[in-house]
Design a protein that fits this description.
With about 120 residues, the protein is mostly helical. Helix content is about 80%, strand content about 0%.
């Protein structure tokens, strides 16, 4: 009962945030060589930090419904993913990978639009 309604959506979003958090760790500590060639190690670490910090905020906020904190996390995640898309477009990598990342970003836009007007999830009386 500590998870705000709708619980299934919150749990799925939590899994997404935790997965992104682990992915950001791999970006920070074992970045792909092509990314480091374009950005250098420090900017790749910053890209991973944006995604990791946003994922941590989102994971902490989504279950109890602290939407102002989740919005901050979504903005950080979106910034990191936008940096990633910019680099992959520059590298000329596969269109499928770029399209997949953009679609993933759009899910965060949808989530942001769902919670943009409220500070906290409504409680049942």
């Amino acid at each position: 009962m500590l998870i705000a309604e709708p619980r299934v959506i919150r749990l799925l979003q939590f899994v997404i945030y935790v997965t992104l958090l682990s992915a950001s760790g791999s970006v920070i500590f074992a970045a792909p060589d092509k990314l480091e060639d374009v950005l250098g190690h420090s900017l790749v670490a910053i890209l991973g930090a944006f995604i990791g910090f946003g994922s941590l905020l989102g994971a902490l906020a989504v279950l109890p419904g602290i939407w102002w904190l989740e919005r901050a996390g979504i903005i950080a995640i979106f910034t990191g993913l936008a940096m990633y898309v910019a680099v992959t477009v520059t590298l000329g990598t596969s269109l499928l990978g770029i399209s997949f990342t953009i679609c993933f970003m759009l899910t965060f836009v949808q989530r942001f639009l769902e919670i943009r007007k409220f500070q906290l999830a409504p409680k049942l009386a």
